[in-house]
Specification:
Number of domains: 1
Number of helices: 6
Mean pLDDT: 83
Structural class: alpha/beta
Low-confidence stretches: 113-162
Strand content: 25-35%
Distance between the termini: 17 Å
Shape: globular
Strand order of the largest sheet: 2-1-3-4-17-16-15-12-13
CATH superfamily: Class I glutamine amidotransferase (GATase) domain
Length: about 250
């Protein structure tokens, strides 16, 4: 049986991920797991995360599952999602916290001055949003507070009524910068759903398999060997998000 463990360490939308995986891979055994032993028994692992990086790392350590996640990353297919992707790097500007250091690199916040390219398909700002709205171009306001997702008011501005907000929330195109099995059946520049104020900056540019644009070009998917990780939320990204989950369920790195 193909057993996919979703790491439940107390900080993530585990049930949404589980529903999406069950729809994408109905023949797999999808388990929300909160013990190291469950992770060891699984054939593959999904590592989600949401909220502030310091809270995620603290909660992961308190759960006693940190070493099990690191071990899984060494030996079985692992998919990181949102903050789960960020936690695979060395650390983050958010709280200057150290992370798992599986990939050398750092997590940076959106900062300026930068120039935003038009969004595709738009800057929708709720979890039920769908593609179709018009993108906007703007300059980054370097004086805005971008300390985290709770800051809400931080914005990329080009005028009193045209601005891109931080956190970045909505649909944005993902450009596939190199081929990967998890992109199978997903057209280049497909929009996926994002909710984040920080993004991964891997030390090795070759780790990047997907990039997007929001005020600046940023890496939104990284991969090496048995690990694939994304900043966006496949479980909120309609059919192509389900396709990515199905590809992961079938992946043989």
């Amino acid at each position: 049986m193909n057993t996919i463990a979703i790491v439940d360490y107390g900080m993530g939308n585990f049930h949404s991920v589980a529903r999406a995986l069950r729809a994408a891979a109905p023949d797999a055994d999808i388990q929300i797991c909160n013990t190291a032993e469950q992770l060891r028994r699984a054939s593959r692992v999904v590592f989600p995360g949401q909220g502030a990086m310091p809270d995620c790392m603290r909660t992961l350590d308190a759960s006693g599952m940190r070493e099990a996640v690191v071990q899984a990353a060494r030996e079985k297919p692992l998919l990181g999602v949102c903050v789960g992707e960020q936690m695979l790097l060395s650390g983050s500007d958010e709280g200057q916290v150290k992370a798992l250091d599986i990939f050398p690199g750092w997590v940076r916040r959106f900062s300026g001055p930068q120039y935003a390219q038009p969004l595709y398909p738009g800057n929708a700002c709720d979890t039920d949003a769908s593609p179709g709205s018009t993108g906007r171009s703007s300059n980054f306001d370097a004086t805005a507070d971008t300390a985290g997702a709770s800051s809400g008011a931080a914005a990329l501005k080009s005028g009193p009524d045209r601005r891109l907000k931080v956190p970045h929330m909505g649909w944005n195109a993902v450009t596939q910068v190199r081929d990967h099995d998890l992109w199978a059946g997903i057209p280049d520049n497909t929009p996926f759903y994002f909710v984040h104020s920080y993004f991964a900056v891997p030390e090795d540019p070759a780790l990047a398999v997907g990039v997007s644009q929001y005020g600046q070009r940023f890496t939104c998917a990284i991969a090496a060997d048995n690990i694939f990780a994304v900043q966006f939320h496949p479980e909120k990204s309609a059919d192509h998000g389900l396709r990515l989950y199905r590809n992961f369920a079938e992946w043989q790195p």
